[in-house]
Write a structure and sequence with these properties.
Keywords: Coiled coil
Structural class: mainly alpha
Order of helices and strands: HH
Radius of gyration: 22 Å
Distance between the termini: 34 Å
Largest sheet: none
Length: 90
Amino acid sequence: MSDLEAKIRLEVRFALLRDIIASYRIRLQEMERKVVELFAANQLAAISECMEEQQRIVRLIRKLEQFIKEWESVQDAGISHEPKREHTKT
């Protein structure tokens, strides 16, 4: 695989992660509406479960964003691989 192919594959993976983050954000918006509905129905236990799930998703989003931020900058800087070292007998 060429360096260009490897870079393209990484870019595709980062784009996929961004798509996942976007879908999580949409899910959070839907959950906010659900919490309002549950509040109107006085479903406190369900609200609690929903809030816990929201917090889990927010943490996941932060971790994914941090991962992208950290590793995408490494990719932009370039990653060099040392050639395989041959063992010499001494």
